[in-house]
User: Which sequence fits this backbone?
């Protein structure tokens, strides 16, 4: 999903990409400009609440099942395990193309895939970023691996503070310890190398490999696996944390949905001009995915000197200046843009 998302286009632009030259985020048919920082804050609040909710209720489900590092390591281990020989060497060889794919995927979220491929070994900047990312990702996956989860990952450390006695965890049933087969299959398959029989360990990523390994042997003897899930998913915290997360998601959606198709900003320039003549700078943002033909005018008895007809490409901004001449005395003057079903008036001071 993460690798394919940059290829998805909505209204002619990437479904999700941050464009560095224009400092705007393309988000499923919308363009969020860097000046709209309140939307970034709302999105950050939503993701913080989502992380808190998922971690407090489901434990380390992200680490064991959804984290890209976990997926890549599991995939490479599964492929290397087919050979039965030279496991580590084959896994590290397979991680070479995988880490390259991840590296170029990360670039695609800033530069469109087609442009990236055309410039990969032509643009020094893109080539350098790709090679450095590829090297760092390969070294991390091939040599640090699961050690990153237990020692470096900040999210793993944060989870310890969000757990409570009802958080979903994997725990060894000590009440049945006397009947344990002592095969240590759970220890052998653990990707982070812990012994679940010694009690709950903060390094456990909740992947459930130990449960599967134990079940394969215990079911032959008519017994349930000794390590198993423990915790309560549905409880009071589920409702109030879930409600807070849903409220933040709804707020973010409404903020994005209620954004106007066009933003029109006007400021008066403090330039020395003859009496009755003012100069204004304007900026028009097109937040829609269609081109707009707009006309600049004024509802007041003034004369506009400058370009009146404006064409805005999709998700683009246009900046310009206009001179306003008045015969009579005015305290304020209004500038209006209209066209394509849009009519916006901005008032500003007049000297």
Assistant:
């Amino acid at each position: 999903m993460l690798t394919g998302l940059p290829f998805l286009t909505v209204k002619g632009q990437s479904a999700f990409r941050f464009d560095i030259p224009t400092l705007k985020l393309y988000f499923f048919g919308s363009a969020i400009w860097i000046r709209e920082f309140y939307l970034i804050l709302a999105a950050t609040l939503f993701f913080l609440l989502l992380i808190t909710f998922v971690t407090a209720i489901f434990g380390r489900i992200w680490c064991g099942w959804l984290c890209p590092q976990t997926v890549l390591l599991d995939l490479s281990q599964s492929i290397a395990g087919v050979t039965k020989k030279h496991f580590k060497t084959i896994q590290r060889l397979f991680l070479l193309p995988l880490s390259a794919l991840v590296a170029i995927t990360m670039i695609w979220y800033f530069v469109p895939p087609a442009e990236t491929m055309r410039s990969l070994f032509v643009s020094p900047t893109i080539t350098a970023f790709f090679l450095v990312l590829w090297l760092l990702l390969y070294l991390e996956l091939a040599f640090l691996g699961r050690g990153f989860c237990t020692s470096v990952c900040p999210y793993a450390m944060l989870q310890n503070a969000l757990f409570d006695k009802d958080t979903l965890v994997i725990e060894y049933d000590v009440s049945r310890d006397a009947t344990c087969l002592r095969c240590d299959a759970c220890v052998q398959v653990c990707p982070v190398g812990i012994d679940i029989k010694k009690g709950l360990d903060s390094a456990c990523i909740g992947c459930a490999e130990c449960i599967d390994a134990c079940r394969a042997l215990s079911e032959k003897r008519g017994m349930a696996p000794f390590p198993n899930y423990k915790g309560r998913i549905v409880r009071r915290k589920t409702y109030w944390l879930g409600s807070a997360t849903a409220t933040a998601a709804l707020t973010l959606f409404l903020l994005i949905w209620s954004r106007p198709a066009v933003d029109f900003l006007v400021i008066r320039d403090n330039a020395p001009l003859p009496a009755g003549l003012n100069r204004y700078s304007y900026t028009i943002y097109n937040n829609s995915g269609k081109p707009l033909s707009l006309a600049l005018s004024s509802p007041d008895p003034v004369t506009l000197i400058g370009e009146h007809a404006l064409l805005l490409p999709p998700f683009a901004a246009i900046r310009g200046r206009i001179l306003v001449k008045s015969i009579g005395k005015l305290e304020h003057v209004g500038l209006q843009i209209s066209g394509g079903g849009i009519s916006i008036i901005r008032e500003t001071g007049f000297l």
